[in-house]
Write a structure and sequence with these properties.
2 helices, about 70% helix, ribonucleoprotein, mainly alpha, single chain
Length: about 50
């Protein structure tokens, strides 16, 4: 559920940037994608041992 919400938020931001031609190089989209991958990988890590 958290991953779906994260994807929705980031894709909305990417669509807004794309609609105003804010980043023709695509750097913003790639950084958003990298941020999504990083967060999901972090969530999949096992919790620290007590």
């Amino acid at each position: 559920m958290r991953a779906c919400r994260l994807m929705a938020v980031k894709s909305t931001l990417a669509a807004r940037v794309d609609s105003i031609c804010g980043d023709p190089s695509g750097k913003t989209g790639r950084s958003l994608k990298d941020e999504i991958h990083t967060k999901i990988e972090k969530w999949q890590e096992p919790p620290p041992a007590k």
